[in-house]
Amino acid sequence: MAAGSRRGRDLRGKEGLVPPQHRVPRLVAGRGAAWVLSGEGIPSWVRETRGAEFDWGGAYGQGVRLTGPWTLEWRESLTATWTRFPGPTSEVRPTDTQVTILSPGTASLAQVTFLVDPVDPRLGCRLRVQNTTPRPAFVEFRFRFQPFLLPVLLEGLHPWEYRTRVRGSALEMIQGPYLLSAEISGGGAEVRNDAPFEGPGASSFPWGILTYKARLEPRGTRETALTIQGGLGRSLHPARPEQGPSEWAPKAGVRRQQEFDAWMAERPTLEVPELPGLERAFRAALGSLEALRFQPEAGLCGLAAGYPWYLALWSRDMAWMLPALLWVGDVDWAVASLETLWRFQTPVDLPALAGRAGEIPMQVGPGPVFLYGTSDSTLHGPSLAWRCWIHSPSARRRQMERWGKPVRRCLDWAQSRCDPVLGLQTNGGEVAEMGRQVARLSSVDCGFEAVDTTIWDSTDRRFHAIDLQVLWARALRGGSRLFDRLGDADVAKAWDLEEDRLRDTIARRYWWPEEGYLYDTLTREGDPVPRVRPNALLAAAEPLLDPPRARQVVRRALAPDLLTDWGLRTLSSRDPAYDPQAYHDGQVWPIATAWATEAAFRQGLLDEGLRLLRIPAEIGSREDPYANECYRGDRPEPWDSCFLLGLSVGPFLTSVFEGLWGLSLEDEPEVLEVGLSPGLRLRRMALKGLRVRGRVIDLEWSVPDLYGRLRKGDPLEIRRGSEVRRLASSEPIRL
Amino acid sequence: MSGHRLRFDLRLLREGLEIESRFGWQALRQLVSTGEFVEKALYRRGTLVRTGDRGIRFGLLNPPLRLGAFGSATLHWDGSLIEPTQCFLRPMPEGVPIAFSTLDKTRPFSFLPGQRMEIQARLESAPSPGPHTVRLTLENVAIPPRVWIEIRDRLSED
């Protein structure tokens, strides 16, 4: 993609449709730090959150919100009053990795650029002021912020106790184990805090203030920079003199852009001339995936769930993103992410953290802090392990031979949650268990009255949600295939038989003939719960249903009570419990749209698949460069929505690779399957630079033919229908 | 220390050692400090006071676990529900008390991080001095499952 375009547009939806508080902010993110900026480029951005408005703007490091929102002010004489920066005639110039504001004053032109370190939890800005007159001039800048210093995953809390101190040119603010160090360089710069530590009786939060004043020669220019380092105090290294703000800032900006460009250059490109919106949405999603790569500290690697309030490693969210990361060719990051989850898988029961033996944590934050207690996170483990295996070159697989143990633990954990009579996964009661543990440990108890923890974890889907059964089937299949490759055929066979039984149970117990759909869940006794949710589509995308039934499921899901112009609702609008602004009982979630897309293509419903792909194409290019978490069920307005969520990005990308192109991989023998059908109503499209186990491949579709070309690597067989050809050179092969 | 208490502490100790051995000392330390922080960040101990004959109040330093707009609230005093018309939320330091009974989905109140809130209530009879349990339950307009906070503290005189 063209560098400079990803964050370059402020696309706010159809004019008048999206209220100002929902408008697109600007994210400047590295692996360890991020700025959340408003559309006009300052670290202050008010977003509707859980129904109320809250300012999420500011600096983030290691998953810790370092500061609250900032105010920027300037003046052109010492006696003048402070003026808000930027002013009404300012201009914002965003690139992929930084945001610059240009603002003219009476006698000067000021330029502030927000940037971030590619790796370290460090971020900052450069300030450049130019005297635009032939006379001497003066300028003074003031940056003010309040500390926050709490991991983002502790939603809703703001600390009240801080220690602050000035150390040379740095202002340090400390809260518990969290620290930020703000520094501004150059003559005329100073730091101060306006309120010493006052403890819990404080009436307000302290302010950190960084100022810079400069006399400017006629037509002269002055520059300075400020930086913020922060996160876990123990893991931060004091800035070396050669890495002061003025030295760090220009280099960091260049390094971050180079890293972004290098990553994007290795990703595939999608060309669909008849659907330019899909091309844009695909590019935007790639850029978003890059921005979500998150490595808050040594040993923690993965993809952040989202911005601004899900900035942590959430296993469930990573599980839905990693297939896309593998298809775009970043196998190393995907493998490292799964290794992180294995690291926190508990081999024994940990009641204090609501963990059962074999369980993968719900979330991991800096510290590390981790909690268990979901019904689905662990079920993803075996299928992710298999996906990593199948996408990895042979040399990479030696590392994965150790994965047998964690995969087996996942399946043992799942087995322990199987209903002994029904043979189905059981969900419910996980949050109550966590509450009991908190009550053990604290004299102030608090908790949620949530009874359930499926992906729609704010609603009651007890006791045998359909999606958990699909994930269980995937887990058994992934585990079986991996163990077969690891040489344990008996275990593999046992899990195959288990999957066969599960397939049979799903067909018998979940089919809802009146709706031509699947029941959403079963009661504890096994009675069906007649509720239409999109989760049944997961079953239709797997080899779990007879094809005619699977097609019925897809068609039913596209009825207007579930499908809107902006995606699929989480619950049918005909359901008595439907509420258009309830998170999981009516809101529209892009991930559900991706499930439908994939199911439609898998079942050969090509027109339906294309119709569904047009939704993210339209919305994705409108929201470029981000992807909202969810929308109201009654109008296309983000509601209680992170502006960027991996659950929206990853499944969309996967639906392009596995749905539209019908891609799948086999390893014995090594084959890339392309499931394109001549019935697809697209005359031409191309997927170039696809990375498949060390090779680079181009695919081009020109109805009714598929052309494959090997750009790099060893020969590979490619299959379309019954036809198998060998890709061995850059000469296109037709299938 | 009772035998029950001893067993409780040993179990906790064993879990702590398990966490330390599996995930490292830093993880254990961070988990403990996070738990302590959450406890301190929600309720300001010692603010449960008696006001007048039948009134009580206490102060919160933050919303319990979830920020946002809340369309309903209930308060229990030692397990008994207090009439919503007799319960009030007062944003601190200068807010106007809002009766629980006036809240609904279209007229919620916003409770944001760092917002101090005083909860006031008028009981049916005069509360006794000594330890009490107060439970505040709130329902968000966007995410239905209710959040709650339960405080155990001694009631002191205003």
The biggest beta sheet of chain A is recorded as:
8 strands, antiparallel
| Terminal Cα span of chain A | 28 Å
Using the 3D structure, state the CATH architecture of the largest domain in chain B: Sandwich
Using the 3D structure, state the CATH architecture of the domain at 20-259 in chain A: Distorted Sandwich
Structural class of chain A: alpha+beta
Count of distinct structural domains of chain B: 2
Low-confidence stretches of chain B are 1-7
Estimated share of beta-strand residues of chain B? 35-45%
* Mean pLDDT value of chain B: 90
State the distance separating the first and last CA atoms of chain B.
33 Å
The largest sheet of chain B, given as strand count, sense and whether it forms a barrel, is: 10 strands, mixed
Number of strands of chain B: 10
Question: What is the H-and-E element order of chain B?
Answer: HHEEEEEEEEEE
Q: Structural class of the helix and strand makeup of chain B? A: alpha+beta
| Mean pLDDT reading of chain A | 91
Radius of gyration of chain A, in Å, reads: 27 Å
Low-confidence spans of chain A: 1-22
| Tally of DSSP helical segments of chain A | 15
For this entry, what is the oligomeric state of its chains? heterodimer
Kindly provide the radius of gyration of chain B, computed on alpha-carbon positions and rounded to a whole number of angstroms: 18 Å
Structural write-up:
Helices cover 28% and strands 28% of the residues of chain A. Chain A has 735 residues and is α+β, with helices and mostly antiparallel strands. In chain B, helix 1 (3-23) packs across helix 2. In chain B, strands 1, 2, 3, 4, 5, 6, 7, 8, 9 and 10 form a 10-stranded mixed β-sheet that branches. By secondary structure, chain B is α+β, with helices and mostly antiparallel strands. Chain B folds into 2 domains: 3-42; 49-157, Immunoglobulin-like (Sandwich), CATH 2.60.40. The longest helix of chain B is centred in the N-terminal third of the chain and has 21 residues, at 3-23. The chains are: A alpha+beta (735), B alpha+beta (158). Chains A and B meet through strand 4, helix 8 and strand 26 of A and helix 1, helix 2 and strand 10 of B.
